[in-house]
Write the structure tokens for this entry.
Amino acid sequence: MSLTFVLSRVVPIVVIVLLSMTITRIATIALTLTGVSRQSARFQARSALTGAGFTTSESESMVNHPVRRRIIMWLMITGNAGIVSVVGLLFVTTTSTRLGDSTGGPLVNYGLMVLGGMAVVWILGRPRVDKALSRIIRRGLRRYTDLEVRDYEAVLEISGGYAISEKLVKAGEWLAGKTLQELQLSHEGVLVLGVQRHDGTYLGAPKGTIAVLPGDVLTMYGHQDRLADLDQRPTGVLGQDQHDKAVADQEARERREQHDADLQAERDTTVG
């Protein structure tokens, strides 16, 4: 197999795949900088690049956000151009290559070269390499773009059992028909970050006077077990009893955390 064949047939395919991976990485990180979770950003970036076109609520959030919409648009354009290039290159390669051809070499060798190129792509996609490349891309985006740079997971401390969750409020539930002040969810350690009305209106950082209506979607931040409890809380007196118990549990948790913090401060003072 000649060097000319390798350079003209195999290398372009590998380069196109590598470029697709790099573009997907860049788009994923760019989307996370606008507040999208990494898992959702990766899925939407790959969907747009390949033209899969999934229609979900996540996709709607991409279209409704001007920066995300611009990122997705460029992914779609780039993806279409890349697919056309790969198909055209494969067509030219398979039609021009003949068994035993002194310039093209056997098709078996050609296939092995393609597999070798894919192995290189696989190595570059390993977690350790991916993290290193992601750090470089993130620094570049922060330095050379005006994307809003926020590490939301770090800011909100989405770890240690804490999470952000959405809750669809149904008629007859404990949450329905009360104001946020009446619900006193903050006493349970749950913060309501936003309220999405059934008519599409979004209320960010809602005040206590906001009433929770059937059909609303609450975006809440708190401990996972507390969020799960709210999702299954019964109505009436039983629901109020669970609320009171959750408040007591939260107060006990805060006391434990304060006690641990005081002990740690004493240790630091002793060591110092």
Q: What stands out?
A: The two ends are 69 Å apart (CA to CA). Residues 98-104 have pLDDT under 50 and may be disordered. Residues 156-271 form a domain with the Alpha-Beta Plaits fold (CATH 3.30.70.1450). The chain has ten helices and four strands.
